[in-house]
Amino acid sequence: MADLKKVLIIGPFPPPITGNGLSNAVLYEGAKEKEDLIADKISTSSKNFDESVGSFSFKKVFNAVCYNLKIHKVARADVLYITPGQSFFGIVKYAFFIIIAKLYRKKIIVHIHGNFLHQQYNKLKKINKMIAKKLIGSANSGIVLSKSLKKNLSPFLADEKIEIVNNFFEDYLAESIENVLKNKSLEKLKIIYLSNLMLEKGIMDLLSAIELLQKNNINYEAKIAGNIDIKIKDNILKKITELQHVTYLGVVESEKKKNLLLWGNVFVFPTYYKMEGQPIALIEAMVTGNVLLSTNHAGIPEIFSEKNGCFIKKRDPQDIYHKLIMINNNSNYYQEIIKHNHLYAKKKFKKELFLDKILEIITR
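Predicted structure:
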């Protein structure tokens, strides 16, 4: 037992479901299966889903106090793997863990899941910059999701300390090509939105585009799934009820999520979310054989191109509508993209590739 390395994973875990939380959960389960590792975790998630990520609130302070009470776990760990936020508060809420880890000379790995940290850092006052740089700069290694996102750690860590690890899809989504394609006809648009329902994720833009499909008598069906930001929940649900052939499914997991993704043929993700990184939802939509519509935003262009679907303009329902019509009118061409996306995702984004790389960083 003395030779076993102990890793403590600190960051959000489901619920609520987010890409960062799912990534931490998958890593935790993967680490537990390694014979040379002992894994533990501290969840920093809040109970309620709220779009105002990075803002200060007393609820968040109370939540931080609660999980900081578990700081004794740091002394028992050899490695801390931390997924900090991308705001000043998102960094300093991990300060005690980092400070204690440095005092005990523990290895620290920070994993940034977005593209907002460098922008936020540049806007900070001098004293806050010093604090942020000291905390993140204490890490032995840093991880980002793609090459273009390295700039989020470059103010804090030397380039050789920054690793790139792509996101992933979970194994249960990886059906055979035959099973994926058997229900993927483009005779009717079967539209999916599967993510947190937030203004910056473009949910209202999509619903407005669907309204145009309805007005122009286009044959479609749409299914929407995910947590809804509590501040816009009533408006979102009202808009959905006003549209024909649109169903809100709530939060879907496991087989329900898989069935939804296999049902659809077009996955629409019109995000301009300031903290976006490399959305797991896009990878899941690829491996389950969907044409993708998404924005040229954050790390998305490094996993998605015109070979996977169409880029759409930010905050532009008309453009979403026109791209949906284009797919509807060129079904033979986009049928080939459905097959390509499945094979591309299986080759590039397997969970085992994600786990192997991060566990190698932890154990080296």
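Summary: The first strand starts at residue 5 and ends at 11.
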